[in-house]
Each structure stands twice: as structure tokens, then as C-alpha cells.
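Problem 12. The chain below contains 58 residues. Write out its predicted structure in C-alpha cell notation.
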Amino acid sequence: MTHCPECEAVLDMEEDDVEEGQTLNCPECDAELEVVSTNPVELDVVSGGDEEEEGEDW
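Solution.
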């Protein structure tokens, strides 16, 4: 059973059908998730565009 790392919702997915690097969206919180491991399946939240760009001083 796989959970969303953002909201902990149970994700109903076929774990045999995912590949490393694949992205999907959580149906509960709509977070964009990346498959970082397939055995076991591990997901990580894809960072949004709110990180500082290199070379910018704010």
C-alpha cells in the first residue's frame, strides 16, 4: 500500500505498473509526485517553482 508523502492519503495504484522517474498526481491533494524507487514503491513530492533560482539574491 502506497501513501502520498504530502497528505498521507492511500493511493490506489498497481505497484507493478509504475517506473522510476514516472510522475503522477495525488487524487486527494493534487500534489505532483515522482516515483523514486520501485522496490518498494517510494514517492516524493516534485518541488514546485517556488525555489530560488541560482544566482538570484532576494
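Discussion. The chain has one domain: 2-45. Students who got a different answer should revisit the alignment rule from Section 12.3.
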